């Protein structure tokens, strides 16, 4: 149900000057650090056939919750009864201008997706959205709920309908002036705000993102098979990473940015102004061996408040073992792998054995 704020919003509908209120909302959003906002309606029926086909193809992998939610993702008013509009907000996260490519080029270093280098975006964005929704309520009572990748919401579909950008061939949202390095969040509201118009797509014949995907996960323009996506393999997948895909992961231990790094529109990406998104614990340039040495306590302490925390220490080691298997053969790499050869987890041991075999070695003893 929608959260009521300052009384019954329905009684105030007739008093709302939608255009004037929306202008003030944009100003409040900017003051809170959002790059832009847009307003969409709740009729996403046109997106349902594509969603159904994607699920039927099994492209969601082990993310069973996506199948359970089904078409609710395309029905905002079913997810939250009473919703009339969805306000989408954009928050930039890109923390640096050059470090990503340097990390990927150095096989001894770990690559962490740039969005995960700092504080967990769920917390940062949700708090900002809540403040914006409450600021709106102080001016015009409304019922609302806020979401940040925390419910079955077609975020990109909504944002592509409300003018925040267009869906790129990698399925992420793109904006001519901001690229794609930003988070999206939503406010579901019962305020009858004016709708923003969508913008034209500007990918043209470009296939840079498709060509750059290390595992071929972008199986067609606008279609990603999550089962091959490195972000899925290193974050969502709980079991062993398929052997055939392991060499393709390179040194990527948490997520992947390749399709964004090659996108021409990201020449215009904006550096974030959010201190919370600044890299922590040197994760933007850390060595694989050093990260592999983290104990479970180290992992818990150093990823507290980070999106990385949720994969747990076992999968952290699994991912790094694969990257060490892909790294140049050095004494440091071999010693790191041997140090975990008798790890209590069968999952970790399996990936360590594979990694050692890549270097022509077997576990000591």
Structural class: alpha+beta
Q: Based on CA inertia axes, which overall geometry fits? A: elongated
Q: Helical stretch count?
A: 15
Number of domain modules = 2
Mean pLDDT: 93
Number of strands: 11
How is the largest sheet built, in terms of strand order? Answer: 1-5-8-3-2
Largest sheet: 5 strands, antiparallel
EC number: 1.17.99.6
Subcellular location: Cytoplasm
GO molecular function: 4 iron, 4 sulfur cluster binding; cobalamin binding; epoxyqueuosine reductase activity; metal ion binding
Cofactor: [4Fe-4S] cluster; cob(II)alamin
Describe this structure in words.
The chain is of the alpha+beta class and 365 residues long. It folds into two domains: 1-286, no CATH class; 287-365, no CATH class. 36% of the residues lie in helices and 12% in strands. It contains 15 helices and eleven strands. The strands form four sheets. A five-stranded antiparallel sheet has the order 1-5-8-3-2, sandwiched between helices.
Write the layout of secondary structure elements.
Blueprint: E1 3-5, H1 18-31, E2 36-40, H2 48-56, H3 64-69, H4 76-79, E3 85-92, H5 99-105, E4 111-112, H6 121-139, E5 142-147, H7 155-161, E6 166-167, E7 173-174, E8 182-189, H8 208-212, E9 218-220, E10 223-224, H9 230-236, E11 252-254, H10 258-261, H11 288-292, H12 296-302, H13 312-326, H14 331-339, H15 346-358
Parallel strand pairs: 4-11
Antiparallel strand pairs: 1-5, 2-3, 3-8, 5-8, 6-7, 9-10
Helix pairs in contact: 13-15
């Amino acid at each position: 149900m929608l959260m009521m704020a300052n009384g019954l919003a329905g009684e105030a509908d007739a008093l709302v000057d939608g255009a004037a209120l929306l202008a003030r909302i944009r100003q409040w959003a900017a003051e809170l650090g959002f790059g832009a906002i847009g307003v969409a309606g709740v009729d996403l029926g046109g997106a349902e056939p594509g969603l159904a086909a994607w699920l039927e193809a099994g492209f969601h992998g082990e993310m069973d919750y996506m199948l359970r939610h089904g078409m609710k993702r395309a029905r905002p008013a079913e997810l939250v009864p009473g919703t009339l509009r969805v306000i989408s907000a954009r928050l930039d996260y890109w923390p640096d201008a050059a470090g990503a490519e340097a990390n990927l080029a150095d096989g001894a270093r770990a690559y962490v997706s740039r969005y995960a280098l700092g504080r967990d975006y769920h917390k940062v964005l949700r708090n900002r959205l809540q403040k914006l929704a409450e600021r709106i309520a102080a001016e015009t009572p409304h019922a609302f709920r806020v979401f940040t990748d925390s419910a079955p919401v077609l975020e990109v579909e909504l944002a592509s309908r409300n003018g925040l950008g267009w869906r790129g061939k990698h399925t992420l949202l793109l904006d001519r002036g901001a690229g794609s390095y930003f988070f999206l969040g939503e406010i579901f509201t019962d305020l009858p705000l004016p709708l923003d118009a969508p913008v034209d797509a500007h990918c043209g014949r470009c296939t840079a993102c498709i060509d750059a995907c290390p595992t071929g996960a972008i199986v067609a323009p606008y279609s990603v098979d999550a089962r091959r996506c490195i972000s899925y393999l290193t974050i969502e997948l709980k079991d062993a990473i398929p052997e055939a895909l392991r060499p393709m992961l390179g040194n990527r231990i948490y997520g992947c940015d390749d399709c964004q790094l090659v996108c021409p529109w990201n020449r215009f990406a904006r550096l974030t102004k959010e201190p919370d998104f600044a890299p922590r614990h040197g994760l933007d340039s850390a060595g694989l061996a050093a990260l592999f040495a983290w104990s479970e306590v180290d992992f818990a302490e150093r990823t507290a408040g980070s999106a990385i925390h949720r994969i747990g220490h076992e999968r952290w080691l699994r991912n790094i073992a694969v990257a060490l298997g892909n790294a140049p053969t050095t004494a440091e790499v071999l010693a790191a792998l041997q140090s975990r050869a008798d790890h209590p987890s069968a999952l970790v041991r399996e990936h360590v054995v594979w990694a050692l075999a890549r270097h022509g070695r077997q576990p000591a003893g």
